[in-house]
Amino acid sequence: MTKFSYIIKSFFHYLKANLLVALGVAISTTVLTGSLIIGDSVRYSLEQAAFYRLGETTHLVTVRERYFRQEMASEMEKLNPEIKATPVLLLEGVAVSGGGERRANRVQVAGVDKNFSKIANDTLFSHLKNNEIAISRNLAERLQVGQGDNLLVRVKKASLIPLNAPFVSDDESSISLRATIKKILTREELGRFSLKNSQSAPYNIFLSMERLNEMMDFSGKANNILVSSSLETNEIQKIVDQSLMPADAGLAVKRIEATGEMEISTHRVFMEPKVAQTLKQLPGANPVITYFVNEIEKTQENKSTANLLQSHSIPYSFVSSLSGKQLADNEIILNQWAADDLKTTPGDTIRLKYFEIGPLRKLINKKAKFVLKAIVPMSSQWADPTRMPYLPGLSNAGHCREWEAGVPINMDAIREKDEAYWNQWKGAPKAYISLTEASKLWKNRFGIYTAVRFPVEQYDASKFREAFSQEIHPADLGILVEPVREQGIQAARNGTDFSGLFLGLSFFILVAAIVLTALLFRLNLETRSAEVGILDSLGFKTKQVRSFFLLEGLVISLAGTLIGLALSVFYTSAVFRILNTLWFEIVRTNILLIRIYPATLVAGMGISLVVSLGAIFISLRRYQKQQTAPLQKRTKRLLKKQGYFLLNGLMYFSLGGSLIIFLFQIMVSNELNTGLFFLSGGLLLLGLLLAFRKVLARIGPQKPRQLKWHKLVWLNLPRNTGRSLTVVILFALGTFIVVSTGSNKLDLFANAEDKSSGTGGFLYFAETTMPVLYNLNDEGKRAEEGISENFTAVQFRKVEGDDASCLNLNRIKQPAILGVDPETLSGRFSFATRIAELGDREPWRALDTKFDDGSVPAIADQTVIQWGLGKNVGDELLYQNEQGDTLRLKLIAGTTPSVFQGYIIISNEHFLQHFPGNSGSHIFLIDGEAEKSPQIGDELQTLFRDYGWEMEPTARRLVEFYSVTNTYLSIFLALGALGMILGTVGLAVILARTILERRRELAIMQAIGFKTRQLFILLFSEYLVLLLSGVLIGCVAAVIATLPAFLSTHSDASPETVALVIALILGNGILWIAGLSWFSLRKKTLVNELQEE
Amino acid sequence: MLLQLQNIVKGYGEPNTHSYRPVLNGLNLEVSEGDKISIVGPSGSGKTTLLNLMGAMDTPGEGKVLFKGKDITSYSKQELAGFRNQHLGFIFQMHHLLPQLTLFENVLLPLLPQGKSISREQKEWAEYLIEKVGITGQRNQKPSQLSGGECQRTAVVRALVNKPELLLADEPTGALDEENANALTDLLLTLSAEEGVTLITVTHATALADCMDKKFQLKNGKLVDSLKG
């Protein structure tokens, strides 16, 4: 006989009862360990997703809206053999199959060469020829195609010139290719290749880089280099810096024979300020600006007839600049041809009419007046066609009628002599103005100079290269080096904390399971009270007795945790099955894989053991305190006066506080503050529970009135105040959680047409693969494009970034930025948070302002701010702009759930300042009459099909995003309901304990003539009162706490679901009460009790 | 003097309120080694309360409980537990054997609080007592397999296994039929005489009370020598 054998014998003797306790432990272990496994698995899945999408890539050299030489990759390898570098030309496109029946928009088209095998560990990519492509499995499934099938791929036109730069034709926004599928790629074959931090798999098409270059009309260009290296990012940055050549900045050097000059020009038409500044510093530098003007006009003081005016103007000409002091800012030089045409002489006033090209190719008519200073001969120096920058639609034109200048050309205005001039001198400038004036008039967001010229004798190629390598760094051209693998892993590891999330979601079930464990254990103790008493009388010290039961509790907990660990795996797989099913359509993949680490199991087991042993210990301690003299009759403990006053004070404070906040919100405040309502509800819950305790306490000391049997119910309630309160608290809390969660479910279809809703009152949200370069609201353009339906569009520019919506589980640092005209959103959407500095100002209107510290105001969905970014309003996000400078976006406000989830919004003005190279719009919000919505939708779908127009009703988009939030809420509701059902089991345990204690009392009552039915009603009513009180208190408090949700247009305060859950709770509780009451009143049982007595 | 109770006052409820009910009121008792005392009294007179005080299971409101001259009311809970284990033996109306243990294990149970493993001598002593009360054949059976008399005899052996100086019995024959009650009475007297154990029993049973050397009646919270009337 040892202590150990005593414990083991006790465990097995009370096996059934102990297994019940173990079940409680198993439930808490399942939930707790399950949550930890879910967290691990999500992290593991996201990490795996990062490895699958990156292959061997560790770093990425990338640039937006421009291209560098492919050779940069091999040069990097030469500079450091530890680097494996692979150039990729990454573009977007649309893929179509089944004769146009099936299409996939926003497809990632990657031009790769044999080097890609280094990243993919697959030689397949070396063998892609001409029109052969390899596509990802998800794309094949979407388009229902297989190996050997043909596919029409429309790729967004890439251009060395920014698409919205002045005088660049917008006719061709995409290039088509009919390709044959050579291979369907699995994820192991880099089918999920993506450079964005997201678990969503993109649709991928791979083809040979040479072919993609050819399609884009250029050669040897790439916009990404995938690097595989163990070097640090800054070391790779240095290597990129060393590999950077003027050609990577789009610069080309040529000799201008006619003028005896060397010219450095740019493929981008206008040189970026930093490049221009660098070249200007070189000895002998003469910057040149050549601009296309609509008219050169000789103005006359007395305009007698319109004819006269017409005969004195020249249409569509190039005007160039002269540096130095040859010309004052108001002076102009004309060439002989122009002077003759205008019949002008020095001293005359010459007016230039030109377009200033605003955002979305908005044309602004401008004029500038000059005094004619001189007329220059048509010599090679002055009639110099090389001054005209290379503009594809103009430079290649055989004659004027073939011009595609990206601006409207009135062909009727072009005269025979103009054609003759073009034939002889092409784009040779007809006029010259000072460089200063030209800069002032024609400097635009894309740059300043069109070229920089040097006298041949002063041009020093080595000095140019030296200046370039010293002054121009990759960041100045927007070339970034990013440690993508590390970022991917960090994003995965710091993503949504699913362990925490599920622990939170399962909070109630966890509490219920722990309480149940304690209650069941206590019940066991009470059935063994004689054993405790006898051990006490035999001289076992309190600690010894406690250690026996505690060790027995340890054995029980061990058994429970082992069962729980096994169940946690099923729990996790059930949760993942739900999540994978719910999210599959949205994230396009079954991303979640179960990963079980032994350490997690040990941790889960350890925590569960500690928690359950803690519960058992507390239960045991409290029991022992009550049993200090087991044979002594129990004396009623009177609450100390101090405690009594404290609890009363707290009750009045809670009820009063709740009422004040509620009345303030209803009667005074303009806005229903959800936080304050929740506080009011929470205080009410506490207050009502304390009030219930007070009522119970009051019943006790009352003198018995005329006693009726049913009054016994009322008198019995305070017999064990703590126990009665436990029941009420359990049900009040559970009901509170279930009702408040159910109320907060978002109904995003409700009032979708309301401007203050998450749709902003817009009908559709659309996104294109190719940018739309013009304004959809422009009447002229509408007529040109054949748009007949009446709608308005709000257009957004976009800088690609990571998806920061709830659909992305990774922790995101740089979400995509949208640029918008803030005026167009005024009065739309609602704001959940805003910085104090805004005051009453509408946040949209504040987007145009600039903070003194240089940061730029930005707005995002509050959910993105809080969960996606882990930030608050007032915080900043850091980006690198196109000039390589740090762009600090300050979050000034967070919208309520909206279609903007995943994006950061800034004003167009700020956007273009920082991303001048960005062209056109990719995102659109369409507004119009709701009745006309199908027609508007059809027209847009048809007209913009080739842009990869992907459109959906705004309400549906919201639902998609918030399906994640609603999924969490549903899980929370389900787990809460399960917790409540466990709670009713707890109630049953409490009831069983009470009945156990009252066996003899009930037997006597029956013996003296109480009918079994009466006793049943007595017992049943006692606990029904407690059950109903708890549910009622919880319900009332929850309705107050979530009143804004009930009143809100966006919430699906689904009363049916909540009512169903409450009915389940009540039904389950009633069943237990009725069952146990009936069981305890069975005749046989009672007779036994009396015999024992 | 083995045990002295001096001016013991004990009641239930909150003192100085209407709910307070006095039970023992200035009670005095002196017990010498080897005494065999019975305490009788009507229900509610405080017999069990008194036994709890003597057995260090409860503390008096006022007064002292001296064991061999030492005031045990000043002992800590831990000291009291040790004291009970080493000096006292208890027998209750219900045997209170632990159902999960065999007869023999139940008997050995009081040896565990000492924290040492049970010695051969202790086991032999337990076996001797078991043999003496005639339940050797049932030593490996669990209480559920024993008769009421066997259970109560086991309880007696369990009370004696630690060689206590004072044996306290609360209605030890209350749950037994006459034949078993008589047998248990004989057993208690024989064993206490043989082992030199002082015996105090609280009982309603006249037969048991009459067998004792001294017989007290608990009346109005005080002990009255019932032989003196």
UniProtKB/TrEMBL annotation, chain A:
- Asked if Disulfide bond is a keyword of the record, the answer is no
Q: Which is one Pfam family of this protein?
A: FtsX
The UniProt record lists the ABC3 transporter permease C-terminal domain at: 505-626, 975-1076
Q: Where are the transmembrane segments?
A: 20-38, 500-521, 548-576, 596-623, 644-668, 674-696, 725-743, 968-996, 1016-1046, 1058-1081
Q: What is its main location?
A: membrane
| Localisation per UniProt entry | Cell membrane
- Respond yes or no to whether keyword Coiled coil is given for this record: no
Membrane topology is:
Multi-pass membrane protein
Task: Please provide the record's keywords in A-Z order.
Answer: Cell membrane, Membrane, Transmembrane, Transmembrane helix
Under the heading InterPro entries, the entry gives: ABC-4/HrtB_transporter, ABC3_permease_C
Question: Cellular component per GO?
Answer: plasma membrane
Return the protein name: ABC transporter permease
Automatic annotation (TrEMBL), chain B:
What molecular functions are annotated in GO for this chain? Answer: ATP binding; ATP hydrolysis activity; transmembrane transporter activity
- Segments forming domain ABC transporter: 3-227
Q: Which CDD domains match?
A: ABC_MJ0796_LolCDE_FtsE (cd03255)
Keyword Nucleotide-binding attached: yes
The protein's UniProt keywords, in alphabetical order, are: ATP-binding, Nucleotide-binding, Transport
Its GO CC terms? membrane protein complex; plasma membrane
Q: So which domain of life are we looking at?
A: Bacteria
**This protein's record includes keyword Transport:** yes
Q: Which family does it belong to?
A: Belongs to the ABC transporter superfamily. Macrolide exporter (TC 3.A.1.122) family.
Q: What is the recorded name of this protein?
A: ABC transporter ATP-binding protein
